[in-house]
User: Which sequence fits this backbone?
């Protein structure tokens, strides 16, 4: 990350592609660095932020676990999603999604909306 910061500076605008082809490990490293250093401004533009499905209750967990084992066993979650879901993504100056999640598990906070 030092080389990235030396090259682009402390104002980082990161564009993530649509779908599963994201470089989650790179995005997570940038997010972690911005979380540790308040002088870094991180803006993320992405078409879709994928999250692992969650099974609620015993039946839901039993239904979704085989799917998680098969499809998400090597998927690295995006580090900013829990904070974004809680509406406290202060590390990211702006996280703009160009689509909506089909699951009503979170709402996009006002500071994250594209206007």
Assistant:
């Amino acid at each position: 990350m030092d080389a990235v910061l030396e090259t682009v500076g402390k104002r980082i605008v990161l564009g993530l592609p649509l779908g599963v082809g994201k470089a989650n490990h790179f995005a997570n490293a940038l997010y972690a660095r911005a979380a540790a250093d308040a002088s870094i401004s991180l803006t993320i533009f992405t078409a879709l932020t994928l999250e692992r499905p969650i099974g609620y209750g015993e039946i839901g967990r039993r239904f979704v676990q085989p799917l998680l084992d098969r499809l998400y066993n090597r998927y690295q979650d995006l580090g900013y999603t829990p904070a974004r879901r809680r509406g406290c993504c202060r590390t990211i100056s702006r996280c703009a999604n160009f689509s909506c999640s089909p699951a009503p598990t979170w709402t996009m906070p006002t500071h994250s909306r594209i206007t």
Observations:
- Residues 2-112 form one domain.
- The helical segments are 2-8, 24-36, 57-71, 81-86.
